[in-house]
Design brief:
This protein is of the alpha+beta class and 362 residues long. It has three domains: 90 residues, Acyl-CoA dehydrogenase/oxidase, N-terminal domain (Butyryl-Coa Dehydrogenase, subunit A, domain 1), CATH 1.10.540; 104 residues, Butyryl-CoA Dehydrogenase, subunit A, domain 2 (Beta Barrel), CATH 2.40.110.10; 144 residues, Up-down Bundle (Butyryl-CoA Dehydrogenase, subunit A, domain 3), CATH 1.20.140.10. It contains twelve helices and ten strands. The protein has a four-stranded mixed sheet with strand order 1-4-5-8. Strands 2-3-7-6 form a four-stranded antiparallel sheet, with no helix packed on it. A two-stranded antiparallel ribbon has the order 9-10. Helix 4 packs antiparallel against helix 8 and helix 5 packs antiparallel against helix 6. The chain is globular and about 80 Å long. The chain starts with a helix and ends in a 5-residue tail after the last helix.
């Protein structure tokens, strides 16, 4: 993607990337038909966007997280208009849950949306707001009640109602501008996504789509890293022969490829029926996300090593950037630990098999 180098250098998300994607009709096709759209198509798109680094991640936030929330729960004319702008590539949106005082614990959300006439007065701060500068609007998780997760709601706030506290300097994903943002503005009642108190449900739906896309993105990162390393082993000669002819090196790469075959099959197999009756749901999306991003981190590190000293250079290979960028997958969209907790909540003990094979011990 030709926009990526300039975006990385400037540290700004290129809106033109979304506009170009919107013109192809791919985003609209991804969300047709039904509220869940075509998750299989989403996985293919996310995998291809992995080649765009932080730009690809930013596109994923808009066309998965934001679009998922609006497609299923954006019932007002205002939100329907916003969704149309997202599908056409004309609008950039972001999603804000984390705050300066906490991220994973949604009980700690302090941003409020209080009834004010026919609308809501939204006040608070959001941290780690990816696309905070580029966005035309933000979907913010707010507290509309006194306490508990049932008091959370998701509200659309236009960019004019957002104030940047400061831009966050990150290890990687330079083109994914990320901010600490304050909000103190009034929004109409139609800006409520779903109904008051439904915020956790909407957020879970949106983030589950994001996690499935992150897993597919990780697959794409692995494919790119392995492909680059393989080409290097064929082109680079040491001790009088190409590196690929050294068994220790090619088997190291072959092991990564073998594991990737299994991972890719799992991600695309799950995506084909995701969020449909009997298909993969929130727990499966969490499981795939945490497994895929951890494998991607390992794969990029190994492939970077196969480049030797060149892999450590910023101006000769993309491996250093990929190594920095891949780390965000283990915290963005839900930390490893939160994903494992979701998986753990679905564990089912097999008491019948236990009693038949282990017994009571008495």
């Amino acid at each position: 993607m030709p926009l990526v180098p300039a975006a990385e250098e400037a540290g700004e998300f290129p809106r033109a990337a979304l506009a170009a994607l919107g013109r192809t009709g791919l985003v609209r096709e991804r969300w047709t038909p039904g509220p869940g759209g075509d998750p299989g198509r989403a996985a293919i798109l996310a995998e291809e966007l992995a080649r765009a680094g932080g730009v690809g991640i930013g596109v994923g936030i808009v066309v998965e997280t934001v679009a998922a929330a609006l497609t299923r729960y954006g019932r007002s004319d205002l939100l329907a208009g916003t969704l149309e702008g997202v599908l056409s590539g004309d609008l950039v949106g972001c999603f804000g849950a984390s705050e300066p005082t906490g991220g994973s614990d949604l009980n700690g959300i302090a941003t409020t949306a209080v009834r004010d006439g026919t609308g809501w007065r939204v006040r608070g701060e959001k941290k780690f707001l990816s696309l905070g500068r580029a966005a035309d609007f933000a979907l913010l998780l707010c507290r509309t009640g006194d306490s508990g997760l049932a008091a959370l709601s998701l509200v659309q706030v236009p960019a004019e109602g957002l104030r940047e506290v400061r831009r966050l300097t990150k290890l990687g994903t330079a083109s994914l501008d990320t901010t600490w943002t304050a909000v103190d503005t009034w929004v109409p009642g139609e800006a409520m996504v779903g109904r008051p108190g439904l915020g956790l449900t909407v957020a879970t739906w949106a983030l589950s789509h994001e996690r499935m896309a992150v897993a597919a993105h990780a697959v794409g990162v692995c494919e790119l890293a392995i492909g680059l390393a393989c080409a290097h082993l064929h082109r680079r000669e040491q001790f009088g022969r190409p590196l690929i002819e050294h068994q220790a090196l090619r088997l190291r790469l072959a092991r990564l490829q073998a594991e990737l075959v299994v991972l890719r099959s799992g991600v695309h197999g799950a995506a084909a029926t995701a969020f449909q009756p009997g298909g993969a749901g929130a727990r499966e999306a969490a499981a795939l996300k945490v497994t895929a991003v951890r494998f991607a981190e390992k794969t990029v590190t190994e492939c970077m090593h196969l480049f030797g000293g060149a892999g450590y250079l910023e101006d000769e290979t993309p491996m250093a950037r990929m190594w920095r960028d891949v780390r965000i997958g283990r915290v963005g969209g839900g930390t490893d630990e939160m994903m494992w907790e979701m998986v753990a909540s679905g564990l089912v003990p097999d008491f019948a098999a236990y009693d038949a094979t282990v017994g009571t011990g008495e």
